[in-house]
Amino acid sequence: xxxxxSSLIGRVIDIHSGCLVASIFPADEGFPxxxxxxxxxxxxxxxxxxxxxxxxxxxxxxxxxRIHEEAVETRSVPDPVASGGSRRVTIRERRxxxxxxxxxxxxxxxxxxxxxxxxxxxxxxxxxxxxxAALLAREKTGALxxxxxxxxxxxxxxxxxxxxxxxxxxxxxxxxxxxxWTLSSLLQRVxxxxxxxxxxxxxxxxxxxxxxxxxxxxxxxxPEAARHIDARELEIPYWLLTYSEFVDLFVDxxxxxxxxxxxxxxxxxxxxxxxxxxxxxxxxxSVDSPVYFSIEDLYQRFKKANEEKLEFGKVKGPLYGAFxxxxxxxxxxxxxxxxxxxxxxxxxxxxASLEGLLRDFVGLGEPKRQVTVxxxxxxxxxxxxxxxxxxGRLAYEFNYWNPQRHEFPILLVCEEAHQYIPRExxxxxxxxxxxxxxxAKEGRKYGVTLCIVSxxxxxxxxxxxxxxxxxxxxxxxxxxxxxxxxxLLPEGAKNLADLLASLRRGEVLAVGDAAMLPSRILVHPxxxxxxxxxxxxxxxxxxxxxxxxxxEIVNNWWRQVR
Length: 562
What we know:
- By secondary structure, the chain is of the alpha+beta class.
- Helix content is 28%, strand content 25%.
- The strands form 5 sheets. Strands 11-10-24-23-22-12-21-20-13-19-16 form an 11-stranded mixed β-sheet.
- A hairpin with a 6-residue loop joins strand 23 (507-512) and strand 24.
- The protein is elongated and about 125 Å long.
- Residues 144-389 form the Helicase HerA central domain.
């Protein structure tokens, strides 16, 4: 564990609130900006760089979080120009503020966390790349190489996949920071190194599979690894909705009769599910059981109760007129052709079709694939939260009832998660939010974990984000989002939130159980990249087309095909 004396740069002079302050030794020509170790020129005091703090009791790895210089005294020194004279000079001191990250044990291994702090006078050394690489080396095989350390591009930045995906992951960053880039690079490496991975990717904008200008289909995964499914063709039918999701979709909670509608809906759903599935011999059906029933029968029961009159039409029934708004909302969805895949299912029109549907979206259909990319871009905006929550809930229920759940873990990737896992509790989609929060709180026990991707962390459910054990944070300039992310980070990494605004595109701050140390990482470019790049505005405005086929655009709009 010996470190060459040439690496010594200073000593600890102050310790407070978990922070170390070190004074840098000056050289003859002033304070050094770098130190040569072999063929390396190591910076002294660069923000984010690592140093080793040594005393007799042990060694610590720390990160430089601040550097400043101040005048400590003024003294008179002989002036060689003026015979017998003197001049006043200011003595300055350069100090580093260090955040302890981990202890270095006797075997030269890092142990994250700090059980004891060094004493005043402990030596501070810069660390050569070979030693740092040895400290960061993982004992376990199968580590995922996400990129290179920003402060040492020669060193690999690896993450523990079991911890990364086993304790929920959040990828946060403003638009254009590289979230899709980072996610694509990460998942491509998972697919290539783990042939039995099971990933469901909710693609809200068609970024991960698209039709190119050549007319052929392209995607970030090879055809042997992924299956791309249009959510309309997957045909997730209405009868898979839970009672609370039906309420979200059909009941306006601000309606004066909302309480009556909710109560009647519960009774009607339970009755229809039972009556329509007597042939299955199920004894314990509930209002949420995923079994088929006729949506037309549901409508007719509401319509009948809404129009019921007693005593030969002289007296209005107890529910007369109470369901007017419900029936209008129902008809608006039912008569809209865009909702046919949901309201008028063709291939999933029986309880027995559930097995095939589950096989399709967990990757066990034909052909079997590691990744199922579900394209939600053609789905109407107001239905996306419901369909997304449906997929998440089905993944959870699938493994909840799966006796081999620990041999078949599922990762659910939620792009633009703030759209359907909102922070506000009084949102229209209470049921969908509750379904995703259940996965965040309980899914890990059953082998279902989340990867949350969002550009607005302040609009995301606090429950979901607080359950994440890992964060890949990209550039965030908004002050409110920065402060929110700071509160989410572990105590020892909170100061790193100050770096979020200065991150480069495609650079992440990795914090959590999967990263041995909080690190800035330059992410490897994905190959191929997702279809999320910005439009080359200046090039297009200089060399763009003179005309467009507007007829084709209109036709695509009419047919809802891109």
